[in-house]
Amino acid sequence: MIASWRIISLKSFFSLVLLVVAMVLVVRGELLAESAPADIVTQGEFAATLVKELGWQEGLPPEPKTADYLTVLSGKRTFRFEAEDVYDVQGDSVTFRNYPLHGPFSGTGWLSGIAAPTTVHFTVFIPRGGEYLLRVVSRGDGQRWLAGGKEFTVSTGGSLREVEAGTVLLKGGRQGISVLLPPEGGVDAFTLVASGDHPAIEPLDGWHADAPLTWGDYAEAVAAALNLEKEFAVAPGTKPQILAFQNVKTLPSSVNLTSVDYLGTHVAPTWARVGADGASLELPLDVAATGVYGVRVRLLGGKLMTDFNGKRIQWDGKPYLNWYDLGITRLTKGTHTLKIQLPPRGGADVVELTARSSSPADYLAAIGLGNKKPTATVPRVELETQLRKDLSRIRPTR
C-alpha cells in the first residue's frame, strides 16, 4: 500500500514538474513573441522612413497610409485626371454630359461650358514634385489654362481633342488647376507627365509592406535612390541577348525585310526597312530573370522615337544603322515591349539586352555593406543611422 502511494506521489511530482516547465516555456515564448517583432522593421515602415529621410513628405496626405508612401516612391510619373471627377461641382458653371456630342471622350463623361466664358476649377493630387508636361483633352479656341502659376493658351477647334499645353514646375501634394473656357467650350480630361527619368525606388521584387526588411531589400531600395545601378558591371560569363525585328510576327504592310549592307552593318540576317510614310514597330522582349540590364537598339533614320517601360526618347539619328543606348534599367521577369517610331525610309535591326551583376550581395557591395548577410533582417536600432549615412551622398548630413 505504501509502495503504491509512493508511486502515485512520484507520478504527481513529475507531472507537477512537467506542468511548471511547460508553463515557463509558454510564458517565455509569449515574451519572445511580444519582444521579437518590436525589433523587426517591416518593408512598409522602411518605405515611410525612406520618404521622410528623402524629404518628400510634401506629396503625402495629412494622415498617410503605407500605400501613400509607396506611391511617392513608385516610378509612376504620369497622372491622368477625368475632368468630371475633379472639378468644383458646387461652384463651376458647367454641365456634365455623357454622350459624344463633340467626339469620343474618356471616363464617365465630359464637361460642357455655357454661352459665355466660364472658369472650371480642378483640385488634384500628385505625390512628387518636379517639372510636368500638361496635356489637355478639350474643345474650343482661346482656352486659358492656369497651373503652377503659369498660363497657357490652348486652341482645339470644335471637337474634343488632345494637345500639349506646356511644361510647368509643380510641388508635390494638392494642386489647383483651372481653365477659362470660351463660349460653348468643353473639357474631357488632362494629364500631367513628369519630365526626365524617375525610376521606382523599391526592392527588386517590389514592396511587400508586411514582410520583414532584410539587408538585401534595404540595399536594393537604397541603390535605386542613389542611382548606383548604372555602375553595375556586366555579369561574369554573360553574353548579350539579341532580339531581332525580323522576328516580329506581324509587320506593317509598309515594312520590308532586307539584307542590304550599304546602310551599315546589320546584326540579324535581315532587318526591317520602312517605306516612304514611316512606321511604328513593336518588339516583345522576353526577360528570363528579374535584374538589371543594359539595353540598346540598332536603328536607321533621321528623327527616331523609342518608348520602353514608360521612358520615351526622341533621337536625332543617322542615315545608317547605328546603336542607340536606352540605358541601364531594372527589368522584371516576363515580356516587355519596345515601341519605336521610324521616319520615312528608316529601319530597325536588333535590340541587345546585357545582364548586369544584380544579386542582393552585389547591391550590398554597391552601397558599402558587403559585410552584411543579404537575408538577415535589419535591426530597428540600426536603420535610421545607416539610412542617413547612405543618403548623405545625395544631400548634406543633418
Mean pLDDT: 88
CATH superfamily of the largest domain: Galactose-binding domain-like
**Structural class designation:** alpha+beta
The count of helical stretches stands at 7
CA(first)-CA(last) distance = 81 Å
CATH class of the largest domain: Mainly Beta
Series of secondary-structure elements, N-terminal to C-terminal: HHHEHEEEEEEEEEHEEEEEEEEEEHH
Which spans of ≥5 residues are poorly predicted at pLDDT below 50?
1-8, 24-36
Specify the overall morphology.
flat
Largest sheet: 6 strands, antiparallel
> What is the helix fraction of residues, given as a range?
10-25%
The count of DSSP E runs of length 2 or more, i.e. the number of strands, is 20
What Rg do the Cα atoms give? Answer: 30 Å
Q: What is the name of the CATH topology of the largest domain?
A: Jelly Rolls
**How many domains, as an integer?**
3
Characterization of this structure:
By secondary structure, the chain is α+β, with helices and mostly antiparallel strands. The chain has helices at 2-39, 43-54, 66-73, 83-86, 215-225, 360-366, 380-391; strands at 78-82, 95-97, 110-112, 118-126, 130-139, 143-147, 150-154, 161-170, 173-181, 186-194, 241-244, 255-258, 271-274, 279-287, 291-300, 303-308, 311-316, 322-331, 334-342, 347-356. It is built from seven helices and 20 strands. Residues 1-8 and 24-36 have low confidence and may be disordered.
SSE map:
Blueprint: H1 2-39, H2 43-54, H3 66-73, E1 78-82, H4 83-86, E2 95-97, E3 110-112, E4 118-126, E5 130-139, E6 143-147, E7 150-154, E8 161-170, E9 173-181, E10 186-194, H5 215-225, E11 241-244, E12 255-258, E13 271-274, E14 279-287, E15 291-300, E16 303-308, E17 311-316, E18 322-331, E19 334-342, E20 347-356, H6 360-366, H7 380-391
Antiparallel strand pairs: 1-10, 2-3, 3-10, 4-9, 5-8, 5-10, 6-7, 6-9, 11-20, 12-13, 13-20, 14-19, 15-18, 15-20, 16-17, 16-19
Helix pairs in contact: 2-3, 2-7, 5-6
